[in-house]
Amino acid sequence: MTMAEKGLAPVLEEKLTRQDFVSSQEVRWCPGCGDFSILAQVQKMLPELGIPREKFVFVSGIGCSSRFPYYVNTYGFHGIHGRAPAIATGIKIANPDLEVFVITGDGDGLSIGGNHLLHAIRRNIGLNIVLFNNRIYGLTKGQCSPTTEFGQKTKTTPVGSIDYPVNPLRVAIASEAGFLARSIDVDTRHLSTVLERAARHKGMSFVEVYQNCKIFADGAFDHFTERSVRSDRVLYLEHGKPMIFGKEGNKGIRLNGIIPEVVEIGKDCSEEELLVHDEKFPGPTLAYLLTGMGYPEFPVPVGVFRAMEQGEYSEMLKAQIDEVVAKRGRGDLDRLFDTGETWRVDENGSE
Amino acid sequence: MNPAALKVNLADLEPGGIILVNTDGFTAQNLEKAAYETNPLEDGSLSSYRVLRVPLTELTLNAVGPSGLNRKEAQRCKNFFALGLLYWLFDRPMEHTLHWIEKKFGRNPKTAEANVLALRAGYNYAETTEVFTTHYSIKKARLEPGTYLNLTGNQAVAMGAIAASLRSGRDLFYGSYPITPASEILQDLSKYKEFGVKTFQAEDEIAAVGAALGASYAGHLAMTGTSGPGMALKTEFVGLGVMTELPLVIVNVQRGGPSTGLPTKTEQADLFQALFGRNGECPVPVLAASTPGDCFWTILECFRIALKYMTPVICLSDGYLANGSEPLKIPSVDDLPDLEVEFVTDPEGFQPYARDEETLVRRWAIPGAPGLEHRIGGLEKQHITGNVSYDPDNHDLMNRLRARKIAGIVREIPPTQVFGEEEGETIVVSWGSTYGAVTSAVENLRKEGVSISSVHPRFLFPLPPDLGDLLAGFKRIMVPEINLGQLSYVLRANYLRDVIGLNVIRGRPFTIAQVEEMIRERL
Known about the structure:
- Chain A has helices spanning 3-6, 34-45, 84-94, 106-112, 114-122, 168-174, 188-200, 222-225, 227-233, 285-291, 313-328, 333-337, and strands at residues 56-60, 75-78, 99-105, 127-133, 179-184, 205-210, 234-236, 244-245, 251-256, 259-264, 300-307, 343-345.
- Chain A is an alpha/beta fold.
- Chain A has 2 domains: 3-241 and 277-318, Thiamin diphosphate (ThDP)-binding fold, Pyr/PP domains (Rossmann fold, 3-Layer(aba) Sandwich); 243-275, no CATH class.
- In chain B, the strands form 4 sheets. Chain B has a 7-stranded mixed β-sheet with strand order 5-4-6-7-9-8-14, with helices on both faces.
- The chains are: A alpha/beta, B alpha/beta.
- Chains A and B meet through strand 1, strand 2, helix 3, helix 5 and helix 11 of A and strand 3, helix 8, helix 10, helix 11 and strand 11 of B.
């Protein structure tokens, strides 16, 4: 559905370009950081939405990811650590016509901000949440994060992390997310497609981006994102299509009871027996199964896991207010004090 | 009163006071439960009071019989019997309560009837028997002509915020989290949807203020409300509000602290927190309401300052004001302050942190306005451009500009109202909900010829510009506070004068007698 069909903002006469979204600020991420790629794809994607530039707001917390708003030439709010979803919620409730993005990271969003993330997702408030997962704390120079792998040596875990990590998409599923997706910083075409789908989704959208931190966690995802192995180790989900991967397109996913398994098409089973991806699968079960698939046992799934529509918070609130105003009329000062329990005192002091 | 109630509350009664006793409640079992070894009604311990004995339970059951309630239900009407007695004692008409019973128990006619029977029976009992030898007539308070409404402090906060919304033409956003004694503000505001009020029960205190700040960024009138523990959590966001220079009203309905403290008891020990509780040089205007009705006017003033100076503003209330009530004279539109809001619309030459020459206030451009796209945030800002800046001289300059902007608010503060002469022996400086008790105490002392005046400032930061000179006209400064001496500390630091703190921190409002005695001891 286009933005015009969604009834969001007037369609522009002159289409915006990528350049319109580049700010005057010098981009200061480390050379080789995955964030450059994500920035480029966002700037490429935004003009496609056909929304006037002044309607976009980028809200972030603290972290390398959260420097993002400074580099996009839109309204932006660089907030405090973990609290972007709260700020963004207030912005969206105040003006539901704005297209609001929340840019966060694995530390900002899942550690200090875990609570706000849960509730922003649960409320289905129309925010586009993009979580840059680099499995480390980059800005503060190398401490472990809630997604750092077990046993990983970091600045605060020099003999290996004993924290069991959490899976961002599973946190989102548990928070009843209606739109879930994952992509990879260097898979540029896929990334911009996923981001566009997220923006077009009415209601809250949650996208996890595997992002490489060149300095403090270099290569965290290389074992499946590296170009030469990607097609064998990444599963590109497509709604309505059977789950097939591999350089020769001869491997697939089949359900064995309630457990997924990797099969060779033609050898272990036919294509008809493969699991077909369904973004509208009733309930979170399918998405939950998919998010549990990790390297090396499985190909890592990317794409849109789930895309379900339900009432969006800021619009529902507006509708509630509109309904009361329609019934009782818009309040004014006289009505404010007219509680039916007032009394008059005249010049003589009598009532 | 039953034995337990008597034990707990007797200390509050002055000698010669009246105790209304439900003799039916003074059974051996109840006396034991209340840890009375002997019956106070018989052992002479109450000889300095006037004890009025009434077989309240029995009389209530008899009166309520015709309504058809069972014994257990009928006993619950005792309070209305007692109320009826009091109505006779204070010579007041019962219409208001009769009307209230009808409204409250409308769906339960049996209960309504029983309560009315109990109420009338109590009144008649007082009139007929010789339990009371006199009744008391309280003179009507002298109110200015006008239309009045009885409001609790929390209701007044809600109404003040809506009045601000109406006056400014901007929708109100209230983000809050339930906490005693502030929850009613959220509940009340949530009922005012026809005024376009957007209430948001956030997942925690931090999200509440965060969403409010976001709503402010998007151009709404924004407010959040809480009590002490919630203020502690909101601190970081208040700092962000100061750095981003956005209007935001934060209401602290103070309660007993520290930590969880005494949620249902009043106190005024969060002044330090309001003045100093943020990292860095982080000035925030602080205003305090002095009566339930004054909460309405103080909130309006908080919004006016927040909007005019593009700053968070802290409004201090407390549990006593929040739950206490008084009549408020309904204002006309002209009585309300001007709260005009002007957003930037012309992109030509717009710089997010360019300031007005006199007030040092930056202009407000909101998302949705074409050509004005800019980024703000918590990092230090370059003067005028608003870009992130680590430059040392810029940081020094910005700190001083922010401080000067807030200090300049003194131009908004009207001359301090003095109760009494502007020169003399003793001046009493108080703030917040102690207004009534302190003013009455000072009034009593003045009637005896004591040289004493009092002031009760609303602005605690910045302090009124005439306060220093005023204090200089007195030999002695006394500061009664329900804390261990916070305003005392501030006055000493600001004016280099010593100050006598009159400090009690029992979770109770001051009584007039208590303040009078404290002052007398130090005269």
